Amino acid sequence: MTDTTTAPATVPGAPTTARLLAEAARAVDAPDLVLAVSRNGVRTVHTGGSAEPGPVPREQLAYELGSASKPYAGLLLARLVAQGRVRYEDRAADLLAPGFPVHPAVRRITLRHLLTHTSGLPGLPADFYPQAVPRWSTDPYGGYPADRVVRAFLRARPRHRPGTRWHYSNFAVSVLGHTLAAATGTPWEVLLHQQVLAPLGLDETRVRPGPESTDAVGHRRDGTPVPALDTGGFTAAGAVRATPLDLLTFLEAHVGEPSAPAPRDPTLAAALAEVRRPVLRRGWRHAHTHTLTWFHHPSPYGPVLFHAGATLGQQAFLGFRPGTGLAVAATATRRVHRADTFVATAYGVLTETP
């Protein structure tokens, strides 16, 4: 195990945070691991893992976020709404394929339904699995392109009336991405860069693999490497790659860290505020709360907002405590498994750090 921690030595609390992260890292077994914390703009980064460090420091590698890409999609939608370019209640089919005949339930699906997993759509299209299963551990998404995602949506038969039940859906968020691209006449990757990445200064965040040796390499549970993820037509749901330092920048914008510069564009400030606001309760006695794009839990130190993600060989966790200046980003390069401790460890850092 190799460890590095970085934080200004003169800042009160920094050594304590470094010790907390070093202790937490012992619970995670992965070739590469990064645990990063921002406290009121002061960053502490712990790197480690069972593999030998490469020529690029672990905290400067871009990691696959998987489903932790969805907060980026949510912020993009919120900003487009703030700009008046779309509305949450716009019907997706009307924007994506005006006049195309669809099932009445599909006609009722709005942009809000797609983002909040209340569209009634399944997690993935039914015809996704036959082409994915033969290559489930290597490239399940690459053979299912954008036009196929759109066609699957237009011919869908939702399981439930839109807006009545919560069911996590990569399919739905992917459709949201294609719908926003159609509504604005701008490819998703360009739209995300213009509206989210560039304004927040996320220069090391992208949706495609970067130059050689700049991306982290994922691993199966047995330690063998896996190829970089190709998300096919599911880009909006899981294609973002970012360095842990960029992840902290993204989270610091959400947490409202006092020393961070206020967004120059009021629509960005409005979007950041909107995605922090609880909008949905579900489950037994409405115990589970969600914002537009974040899971929302209570903690001893106030509410926490978070999202985790996993790909074929990597994992990521993003979380923050609004109004407290605390943000946590974590990445690991081993495929998730039943006894995996990565998410629980990162969640513990977020919820138990004083």
Report on the architecture of this protein.
- With 354 residues, the chain is of the alpha+beta class.
- 32% of the residues lie in helices and 15% in strands.
- The protein contains 13 helices and twelve strands.
- A nine-stranded antiparallel sheet has the order 1-3-2-12-11-10-9-8-7, sandwiched between helices. Strands 4-6-5 form a three-stranded antiparallel sheet.
- The longest helix has 15 residues, at 170-184.
- It is globular and about 60 Å long.
- 49% of the residues are buried.
- Mean pLDDT is 93; it is low at 1-12.
Average pLDDT, rounded to a whole number, is: 93
Estimated structural class: alpha+beta
Largest sheet: 9 strands, antiparallel
Query: Could you give the order of strands across the largest sheet?
Result: 1-3-2-12-11-10-9-8-7
Q: Please state the overall shape, judged from the principal axes of the Cα atoms.
A: globular
Q: In which range does the helix fraction lie?
A: 25-40%
**End-to-end gap:** 27 Å
Order of helices and strands: EHEEEHHHHHHHHEHEHHEEEEEEH
Classify the beta-strand content into a percent band: 5-15%
Treating each run of at least 4 consecutive H or I residues as one helix, how many helices? Answer: 13
Alpha carbon gyration radius:
20 Å
How many β-strand runs? 12
Low-confidence stretches: 1-12
